[in-house]
Amino acid sequence: MRWADLLVLLPAAPHRLVAFPFAALFYHLCASRRLSLTARYIFLLAGGCLLAGTAVGSYAVLLLIPAAGSMLILLSISPARAHNWVFAFQMSWQTLCHLGLSSQELDPQDARPAITLSAIMLLTQKATSLALDVQEGLVPLQLGQGLLQRALPLCSYLLFFPALLGGPLCSFSRFRGQVESLGAVPWPLRAAGQRCLCALALQGLRAGLAGGWGCASLRCLPRLWARALLLRLAYYLHWVLDEALLQVAGFGPEAGQGDLSVHDLWTLETTHRVAVFARTWNKSTSRWLRRLIFQRCPAQPLLATFAFSAWWHGLRPGQVFGFLCWAVMVEADYRIHPFLSARATSQGAKLLYRGTTWVFTQQIVAYILVAVETESFSMLYQLWTSCNSILPLSYGLALLLLLAKKPKQN
Known about the structure:
Elements: H1 3-12, H2 14-31, H3 37-56, H4 60-76, H5 79-103, H6 112-135, H7 147-159, H8 172-181, H9 189-209, H10 221-248, H11 262-270, H12 274-280, H13 283-292, H14 301-313, H15 317-341, H16 347-373, H17 377-384, H18 390-403
């Protein structure tokens, strides 16, 4: 099962569709004041456990163990050391799961291992984000309360069903505030419906574009671009439906805090800069990586961030190559564009500059996305030795030439 196939399968799977009516039921129970605050946390937690069991069966144990472990660490370790312990525990467990499941001869038609790994990755986001909030004093754990009163909100946050299998990352403080205020604000049904219609349009567009692209080899330039376009549409579909599910349950993200808005979609498809694409792509994960790695790394934060992203995604050959290539392309982007834009003084030169760099950005992004999705060394070698590598190599050479001449400009 490829990750690209998983992105299309998840929104259409029966368990994903069942989550929508349960999300609506949860909101209406809260709005009618039939659920106390404790009952709300229990409903969200029980729904997460039920969804995990339905979606992945016995693999759910691999998700419940790190959730319980991170919760126990947060309740037993001092706030100053909470993040280091949670980070080490989560990434160690996630790496073991990646290595263990990838080394087994699994049924290629069985999506449960891939769904499990995706859920564990999202759990790592929430656990490390919460641990950072605790360490920085943004989330007091209220030591005066009983163990159950302290543990229940943490467990509910890590496993609540609307965001168990997808959705933009939200902070624990926002999650707790939304649980407490559900029913006091209007139900965002219209916004959720608009996102569902957008998802249908994206799926229709993807189905219309699939197939009929000529050569099937990764050495073919149009084929590479078309394959990357289909991958982007699959990601967009995934993000839009995830946010729709959150909104139906009353947990919609704040304006600009989701993974994909109409403005973000326009930016991703029209930007002429790789760095802008990187900041806009999967925005909640980008913000998480920036806080977790970029802002805390004393040396080479950009390279460290992309290297960690490859680790977090699973360290497959294509992921390591793709994310390191992405880091080099972003660094080159910071150097090349100030150099070119300073020389594009006339209107015609500016149009030529933006049009040419848009084409370059499209091809570089396509190269990176396809590389990340490549599962074998042979396919990666085929991609590396193709003419598609000319543009990334040119960007790398330009970076070497400009590196010593001028400081980078973001």
